[in-house]
Automatic annotation (TrEMBL):
Belongs to the ABC transporter superfamily. One of its GO terms (cellular component) is plasma membrane. It is a peripheral membrane protein. It comes from Quadrisphaera granulorum. This is ABC-2 type transport system ATP-binding protein. SMART domains: AAA. Residues 1-226 form the ABC transporter domain. One of its GO terms (molecular function) is ATP binding.
Length: 279
């Protein structure tokens, strides 16, 4: 996937304002940003559901602005919500979607993978929010896609279900599936993403990996402790281990000793405009 100087305008509003990025085959790429930043518009352009104003876009070697049925069969989409599926059971829905693809996965195996085996005969309309989200995921991967779009895929999942889903995504990635992920869960990004970009007000403000975003891997650590007199001390240092070692040598481990390095959330929030951070 290659995006070069992508613009999308709605009258005077520049929803996407000249962004560029590339996602190599087999990579899990996360697109991060606050609500209204341009993420959804960008993804819809890449999926072939929204026309761009200008710029060059190549997805699986084709222009998504001119999608063909053969091209659509190579991608999978897990959107934030799907339409009502009436009175079909989970198995019936997945089997129906399998007929849309030339080389689908086995429906029963997909249902098992997303943790819906116990609900296979349950009507889709009767599923709880989290279970319905699992069905959305099943419909996104039933076609055995080369490229998978995951838009807030674990919304409504409990912690155990999220970790099971992460394992499924890692399995798909290990099989060579390219994945574009949008999510507000930064722990999800740390677990799954090989690379990422942060978009704010229609522009990409940073790219990197979860470990290097905003140079957080090179940022100094904050060491905090209480000295013998009971006063709290704080020091920024690029060598926290050396400082802690000196403190130990001077009289054992100080009371309240803590070492804090910038988290992915710290780095992400530092890149956004103040108005977006306060939302």
């Amino acid at each position: 996937m290659r995006v070069t100087d992508l613009h999308k305008h709605y009258g005077p509003k520049h929803a996407v304002d000249g962004i560029s990025f590339e996602v190599p085959a087999g990579q899990v790429f996360a697109l991060l940003g606050p609500n209204g930043a341009g993420k959804s518009t960008t993804v819809e352009v890449l999926e072939g559901y929204r026309a761009r104003t200008s710029g060059q876009v190549s997805v699986l070697g084709a222009d998504p602005g001119r999608p063909t049925p053969a091209w659509r069969a190579r991608i999978g989409i897990v959107a934030q919500s799907t339409k009502d599926l009436s009175d079909l059971t989970v198995t019936e829905v997945v089997r129906q979607f399998a007929t849309f693809y030339p080389h689908p996965r086995r429906p029963e195996a997909v249902i098992e993978q997303v943790g819906l085996a116990d609900d296979a005969r349950t009507r889709a309309s009767a599923l709880s929010g989290g279970r319905r989200r699992r069905l959305d995921v099943a419909l996104g991967i039933i076609g055995d896609p080369e490229l998978l779009f995951l838009d807030e895929p674990t919304t409504g999942f409990d912690p155990e279900a999220r970790r099971e889903f992460w394992a499924l995504v890692q399995l798909l990635a290990a099989d060579g599936t390219t994945i574009l992920l949008t999510t507000h869960y930064l722990d999800e990004v740390e677990v799954l993403a090989d690379a990422l970009a942060v978009i704010d007000r229609g522009r990409i403000v940073a790219t990197g990996t979860p470990a290097t975003l905003g140079d957080r891997d090179r940022a100094p650590a904050t060491v905090r402790w209480r000295d013998a007199g009971g006063t709290w001390r704080t020091e920024l240092t690029g060598e926290p281990a050396a400082l802690v070692g000196r403190l130990h040598a001077a009289g054992g481990e100080p009371d309240g000793l803590s070492v804090h390095r910038p988290t992915l959330e710290d780095a992400y929030l530092s890149l956004l405009t103040p108005a977006e951070v306060s939302r």
